[in-house]
Design a protein that fits this description.
alpha+beta, 5 helices, NUDIX_hydrolase_dom, Nucleoside Triphosphate Pyrophosphohydrolase, globular
């Protein structure tokens, strides 16, 4: 991730996490950030040359055939800890809060809704938003399973962070 992109992540400052969130998310953990966000190696450049060399693409608008989705980086006010939790359906998989954008819903509204639904956090502030959509393709077995569950034919997801 470029330095400019590292300043564009959605960072939310929680005031409190209700005790009921433990029922929604299994074993919540706050991880200490061990490096600066600008030290990541992925890029948010939107040139076609960069997209073809990258395992995911970045663009101004989500492409057709991809499920629109938001991702949330929930951080403490000092930006030294971020929230991740294990999935209930895949306990060995840890992820940040994220989820689909409903028809007609704006990404920021979806981020606030998903954060509330997945963590119970209601007191947070959006301090930044990534300027581009980031897409990735589902692995074939995951694509088949998710499309069967959702009744869709998505290639992957286009995420707004």
């Amino acid at each position: 991730m470029t330095v400019a992109a590292s300043r564009s992540l959605i960072l939310l400052h929680p005031i409190s996490i209700p005790s009921s969130s433990a029922a929604v998310l299994r074993l919540p953990r706050i991880a200490t950030v061990r490096r600066t966000l600008s030290s990541c190696s992925c890029s948010t450049s939107s040139s076609s040359a960069d997209r073809s060399a990258s395992p995911f693409a970045s663009m101004d608008a989500p492409p057709q055939g991809y499920r629109t989705n938001v991702g949330i980086c929930l951080a403490d006010p000092s930006l030294t800890k971020i929230f991740s939790a294990s999935r209930i359906d895949i306990p060995s998989a840890w992820q940040m809060p994220q989820g689909g954008i409903d028809e007609g819903e704006e990404p920021r509204a979806a981020a606030i809704r998903e954060l509330r639904e997945e963590t119970g956090v209601r007191s947070a502030e959006i301090v930044a938003e990534a300027p581009h959509w980031v897409t990735y393709d589902f692995p074939p077995d995951v694509r088949d399973r998710l499309n069967a569950r959702w009744g869709t034919n998505w290639k992957g997801q286009a995420q707004k962070w």
